[in-house]
């Protein structure tokens, strides 16, 4: 049984944001750090993967759609997202192999929450969309095949934090470490025995300057300006994502 679990999602290859979260005392003291996907697709993919790999078995890795797409791009598929195509060319073979082997879901026992299923988007699909205001029928469809004993589900993918009940199941989205929608900072969650949605503040100006200086991605400065500065509000993101949740 794990007493404390730190959940980091959607890092998207932004090293300064990741380092800020890893420096949090509650993250350093957690029994385990769980990554819920979209880890490397961004301006500092090699550095982010190396930093996490250095933590060894303190980290449990779950794959997301962007991680899968990096593997596919490395195999020759052209992606519509420029930074992902570039990131795929930067990764070492061992890093591609790691991403290719990531599980879609992991279930772990957490104190106070019981068996917790961690996934990227939904338990059945790594790019399916569910939102804080998704209809109950949509949640029932998405969770139809879940074992009854799983009463807590942690997902990412949409970059907006929330915690809500869904027909007696608790659903948690920790938000995004590297590409937050709705406000600057790095968002994550601490589980056990309850649930805390957390935000780590850091020097955004310095982080943007670091990304621009340290990444060889041609539009690293533009990426940082758009995403590290969180130019997109949660209202903007919900408007874009809403048609994809079946409503």
TrEMBL record:
<dbReference type="InterPro" id="IPR029052">
    <property type="entry name" value="Metallo-depent_PP-like"/>
</dbReference>
<comment type="similarity">
    <text>Belongs to the metallophosphoesterase superfamily. YfcE family.</text>
</comment>
<dbReference type="InterPro" id="IPR050126">
    <property type="entry name" value="Ap4A_hydrolase"/>
</dbReference>
<dbReference type="InterPro" id="IPR011152">
    <property type="entry name" value="Pesterase_MJ0912"/>
</dbReference>
<dbReference type="InterPro" id="IPR024654">
    <property type="entry name" value="Calcineurin-like_PHP_lpxH"/>
</dbReference>
<dbReference type="GO" id="GO:0005737">
    <property type="term" value="C:cytoplasm"/>
</dbReference>
<dbReference type="Pfam" id="PF12850">
    <property type="entry name" value="Metallophos_2"/>
</dbReference>
<dbReference type="GO" id="GO:0016791">
    <property type="term" value="F:phosphatase activity"/>
</dbReference>
<feature type="domain" description="Calcineurin-like phosphoesterase">
    <location>
        <begin position="4"/>
        <end position="189"/>
    </location>
</feature>
<protein>
    <submittedName>
        <fullName>Metallophosphoesterase</fullName>
    </submittedName>
</protein>
């Amino acid at each position: 049984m794990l007493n404390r679990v730190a959940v980091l999602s959607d890092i998207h290859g932004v090293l300064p944001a990741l380092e800020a979260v890893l420096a949090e005392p509650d993250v350093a003291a957690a029994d385990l750090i769980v990554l819920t996907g979209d880890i490397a697709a961004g301006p500092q993919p090699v550095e982010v993967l190396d930093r996490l790999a250095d933590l060894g078995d303190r980290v449990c890795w779950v794959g997301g759609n962007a991680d899968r797409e990096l593997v596919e791009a490395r195999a020759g598929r052209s992606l519509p997202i420029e930074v992902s195509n570039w990131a795929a060319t930067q990764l070492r073979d061992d890093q591609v192999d790691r991403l290719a082997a990531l599980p879609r879901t992991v279930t772990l026992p957490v104190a106070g929450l019981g068996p917790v299923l961690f996934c990227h988007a939904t338990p059945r699909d790594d790019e399916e969309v569910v939102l804080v205001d998704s209809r109950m029928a949509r949640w029932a469809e998405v969770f139809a095949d879940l074992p009854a004993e799983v009463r807590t589900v942690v997902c990412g993918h949409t970059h907006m934090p929330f915690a809500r009940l869904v027909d007696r199941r608790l659903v948690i989205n920790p938000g995004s470490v590297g590409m937050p929608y709705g406000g600057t900072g790095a968002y994550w969650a601490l589980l056990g025995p309850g649930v805390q949605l957390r935000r780590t503040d850091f020097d955004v100006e310095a982080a943007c300057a670091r990304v621009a200086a340290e990444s060889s991605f041609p539009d690293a400065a533009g990426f940082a300006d758009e995403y590290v500065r969180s130019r997109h509000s949660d209202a903007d993101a919900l408007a874009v994502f809403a048609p994809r949740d079946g409503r």
